[in-house]
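sorry for the late reply, my laptop died twice this morning and i had to redo everyting from scratch. anyway the thing you sent over, i finally got around to it. pasting the sequence first so we're on the same page, its 193 residues, then the predicted structure underneath. double check i copied it right bc i was rushing
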Amino acid sequence: MDGRDEMRAADADRETVAERLRVALNEGRLDLHEYDERLQRAYAARTYGELDVLLTDLPPVTPAQRSALAPVPAAAVPVGPADEPSALVARGVTARWMAEVWLPYLRVIAIVVTIWAVTSLLSGDLLYFWPIWVAGPWGAVLVVRTVGGLTRGEPRRQAIERERRRERKRAKRERREQQAQNSEEPNDPPTTA
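ok and here's the structure:
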């Protein structure tokens, strides 16, 4: 065992392993149960050694730059440590979570301010800005939820749960298709010789 195995792993390392496990599931190298088990262990891992164990029986991934199946244009190849795939995935997960938290608020505030503006325009006076009583308290609650959610890792937890639901749906759909294929096959009675 080398010294790297005992070093603490970062969130980006766990995300990279989770992505590799997802690829292995899509390739058919892991079944859904094994994927779920390994994914839980990946996010619970503290050291590189614990992460490496999850990938030992999987072949390495061929980088897209060297893949003969899907050549990647030079402009699409990420450059620099900030654009690593795991960092991009983490940013995308956080951005999606933030949108899910804040977009309903922004839509409602836009509607309420529009109603206020139309009524002010029709009355000919600048009316009291009552939308502040909708925007203020709700916005304060969302700020607390956003700060708390980001510190507790809520975007990542929600992404894991979303991925699990997606995989369960895919497995269920595959089972239904398999059952449909099995029911379509004619049942030949056994012949006696």
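The chain has a mean pLDDT of 81.
thats about all i looked at so far, will dig more tmrw
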